[in-house]
Fold each of these.
Amino acid sequence: MKDADPFVQGLMEIFGRDPSLKPASVSKRAGLSDSAIRKMFEKPASSPKISSATRIAQALGMTVEDVISAAEVPAPSHRPTVAIAGTVGAGARVPLF
C-alpha cells in the first residue's frame, strides 16, 4: 500500500504478522478509544497525531521508528531454501520446489 502513512503501513504489517494482536486491545493499552487503530486502518493515507503514534508504539513495546521500519522490512519468506556451492556461487541460497 504505497499511499499509506508510513506509521500506519508499519502498524498494518505488525498486525498482519501477529494474529494475536487485536486493534481494540492495543488501542485500549495505549489509552486511546477502542476504535483508534481500526480507524487508522480504514483511512491509511491519514497520518495519526504524533502523540497517538507514540502511545501505540509504546503499547506494542516499540518506538515510532520501529513501527515505521516494520513496513520497510519484507516479511520473512516461509519457503524453504538450501545453501549450495558451485557455479551459482558459494553460499547462495535457492528455493526448494
Amino acid sequence: MRLDDVARNFLYTLMSVRITTEDAPRDTIRIDGDLRAADVVTLLDVCGEKGPRLLLDLSGLQHADDVGIQLLKMLRDDGALLHGARPYVAMLLGHSK
C-alpha cells in the first residue's frame, strides 16, 4: 500500500459523513455517508444556521447509528422534511419509502 493510500484511508475513517447545504428553493441539508454520534453536534450546528423549513436530503446517507437516527427523528418531529432515504435508512427511521 502506498503512503497516499494510507493517508486517504486514515482520512476516510475520520470523515464518516459529509454535510452540504443549499439555500434555494428551500433550506436543504444533504447528508452523505455514515451519520454517527460524533457527527451529531456538527449536524445540529448546520441545522441551527438554517431556517425552520428544513429539507434533509438523505439520498446519500448509507447508515446512521442509534444517536444519528434519534437526531433525524427529532428533526422530523420538529418539522424538517426527510427526503430520499434509502430503504435501510427509512426502516431505521420507522417509515416506508
